[in-house]
Specification:
There is one protein chain. It is built from 15 helices and nine strands. It has an eight-stranded parallel beta barrel, surrounded by five helices. The protein has helices at about 5-15, 35-40, 55-60, 60-70, 80-85, 95-105, 125-130, 135-150, 180-185, 190-200, 220-240, 260-275, 295-315, 360-370, 380-385; strands spanning about 45-50, 75, 110-120, 160-165, 205-210, 245-250, 250, 275-285, 320-325. Strand 8, helix 13 (about 295-315) and strand 9 (about 320-325) form a beta-alpha-beta unit. The longest helix is centred in the C-terminal third of the chain and has 21 residues, at about 295-315. Helix 8 packs across helix 10 (about 190-200), helix 12 runs parallel beside helix 13 and helix 13 packs parallel to helix 14. The protein is globular. By secondary structure, the chain is of the alpha/beta class.
Length: about 375
């Protein structure tokens, strides 16, 4: 396949010893000027975007300018999660997301919706109400929220992460579905059918995603997760659940788990063969465990990011790439104990550094977009936000 030997090629071309068997050191990449990432992605019929918070836009004009320079799509980092938007029964607060959507419309950006149905970040009242509610009223706790949120933003949010993170093989179910999930406990796997059919009815023009993490690496953990997702998609599509695309989050951990291009390419080919689209929806690269020195660490992170995107963009079904944040100034990786550096320095897993400067990873992403084959939207809804 066209560009699927990047890691091996980089390793062979470089005389510097590898820091890990999976992550080659490559020379720093040139070319940090010119158009932003979305402009480069559009050349091949794709989009680039990032997750942001409304408070960042309100308080940080330099960051806002960087978003406008680099991104064509925005997604809420947390302001459409249900514990925020429905803190009490019948009480909704979409104010944070309203600001983000208004910003998108003002500047000609597309907007995604994240997320409608998730096992996590649900308000306490909902977790208490589900087991005690029966019949249509119980279904309404799921579908009513979807209808409210999607109708509010119909025509303004073109893509939705309808069901987020439904599989978790290590929780012991034979089918790999997440057992510690309030929705699965309430409805079984049928919660996915309810969610997607409700979403399709609420906004027939929106593109509907099922999203999950841990689908990227050549590890036993990710292999089990890939198998579980493929089986779930097969079952759901056989039931005519209206899933338009799979969102692959893309939280890469190259210093903990190896990345193999052929393994990932084969998985994407299987998804494409089901007749649905693909997007990278939350990409970042955990750099903890890499070299202490910034330059070789940045080079290794960039190498993996380039290899990952080369494979993803080589598949015609891949319509867009979004990073979970844009700048290391605001990366969740620096706040999460498992990924933050003990010395308190920021994680360097996003395209821009903490000073909003373009990094090796930005250059690698730009190069991947520049080299990507041209694609055309296979689904009319892709024209809205993908």
């Amino acid at each position: 396949m066209r560009r699927r030997t990047f890691l091996a090629g980089a390793a062979a071309a470089c005389s510097v010893p590898l820091a890990t068997s999976a992550v080659p050191f490559v020379p720093p990449l040139p070319g940090f000027d010119g158009p932003g990432l979305d402009a480069r992605a559009r050349r091949s019929g794709r989009r680039f975007g990032c997750a942001i918070k409304s408070g960042q836009l309100a308080k940080d004009p330099a960051f806002t300018a960087a978003v406008l320079r680099e991104a064509g799509t925005i997604v809420q980092e947390y302001e459409l999660k249900r514990h925020v938007t429905q803190p009490k029964p019948g009480k909704y607060d979409f104010s944070g997301n309203d600001k983000l959507v208004d910003f998108a419309q003002q500047h000609g950006l597309a907007a995604r919706g994240h997320t409608l149905v998730w096992y996590s970040n649900n308000p306490p009242w909902l977790q208490a109400a589900l087991p005690a509610t029966r019949g249509r009223a119980k279904e309404g706790l799921l579908t009513g929220y979807i209808e409210t949120a999607m109708r509010r933003y119909a025509g303004r949010i073109g893509e939705w992460d309808v069901v987020n993170e439904p599989v978790e093989p290590n929780q012991g179910r034979a089918d790999g579905m997440r057992s510690q999930n309030i929705w699965g406990q309430a409805f079984g796997e049928n919660y996915i059918d309810l969610a997607f059919h409700s979403a399709r009815a609420a906004d027939p023009r929106a593109r509907l995603f099922l999203t999950d993490f841990g689908l990227e690496h050549a590890s036993r953990r990710c292999a089990a997760r890939r198998a579980a997702i493929l089986r779930l998609l097969e079952r759901a599509l056989a039931r005519r659940v209206p899933i338009d695309a799979l969102g692959i989050q893309g939280h890469l951990k190259p210093f903990r788990e190896p990345f193999d291009e052929r393994t990932f390419a084969n998985f994407l080919d299987e998804v494409r063969g089901m007749g649905i689209g693909i997007a990278i929806t939350e990409m970042d690269i955990a750099d903890r465990g890499g070299p202490q020195a910034i330059e070789p660490r940045d080079a290794q992170v960039a190498a993996v990011g380039k290899a990952f995107l080369d494979v993803a963009l080589d598949n015609p079904a891949t319509s867009s790439v979004l990073t979970w944040g844009l700048s290391d100034r605001y990366s969740w990786l620096s706040t999460y104990p498992e990924y933050r550096w003990p010395d308190g320095k920021p994680s360097r897993g996003l395209p821009l550094d903490a000073d909003l400067g373009r990094k090796r990873l930005w250059a690698a992403m730009a190069a991947a977009f520049d080299a990507a084959p041209v694609r055309r939207a296979s689904n009319p809804s892709e024209g809205v936000a993908a």
